Structures are given as structure tokens and as C-alpha cells.
Amino acid sequence: MNAIKNQVQLIGRVGNDPELRSFANGGKMLKLSLATHEIYKDSNGERIEKTQWHTILAWGKTAEHMTRHINKGDQIAISGKLVHRSYEGQDGIKRFITEVVVQEFMLLSQNVVSEAA
């Protein structure tokens, strides 16, 4: 093995409509939240359900494609890398953020909303 890569794959539901931002240099960034859900039994045999929320970022053409095809509630699969960063809040406290930067995505199912006639 030449190198171990920073690679993450997630399948989940989109928690909000994607936010596309455009920058003065022409660059584009998309941000959304993705919920992954797991069910398992603990050591006492009790059923445990857990939902994890992930901050997802996409840049450039990937961001544009995701904006056109993905909406809140859709189930998607993503492949990307983990990125960690920190910043100091207005209160002077250092905060840490972990995000997933998308390299590829696939729409698995669309959230279909029907309106009463």
C-alpha cells in the first residue's frame, strides 16, 4: 500500500435544501446537512436508534450539479474526504468543525411531495 487515503462514504437523507454560495472569483460552494441513521441492540438487548448529522460541502461543478438535483429529504450517497478546521468565536472560545468535502455523489431516491387536488 503506497498511501492510506482520507476517504469517507455516507448514505443518508438531506436535512435541508442545499445552500449554494458564489464568490467574487467565480467559485461556488454548496453546504447541506446529511442525516445517517443506525439501529442496533445494546448489551442489554434493547433497541437503540441513533441519528448522526454531518456537514457536507461541495465545490465548483460538483456544487452546481448537487444544487440542481438534490433537495431536502432526498436520499443520497456521497464519497469524499474529512476536513477538520477551527475558529475562534466572538466569545473568544475556540471551536472545532469536522466537515465532509464531496468528491462524488449519487441521488438514490427523491423526496416526493404530493399536493391535494
The fold-level CATH name of the domain at 8-85 is OB fold (Dihydrolipoamide Acetyltransferase, E2P)
Strands ordered across the widest β-sheet: 1-3-4-6-5
N-C termini distance: 59 Å
What percent of residues adopt helix (DSSP H or I)? under 10%
Largest β sheet strand count, sense and barrel closure? 5 strands, mixed, barrel
Q: Class of the domain at 8-85 in CATH?
A: Mainly Beta
**Which structural class do the helices and strands define?**
mainly beta
Give the CATH superfamily of the domain at 8-85: Nucleic acid-binding proteins
Element order, helices and strands?
EEEEHEE
Strand element count: 6
Overall geometry: globular
CATH architecture of the domain at 8-85: Beta Barrel
CA radius of gyration is: 17 Å
**Estimated share of beta-strand residues:** over 45%
Could you name the ranges where pLDDT drops below 50 across 5 or more consecutive residues?
Answer: none
Average of pLDDT: 92
Number of helices: 1
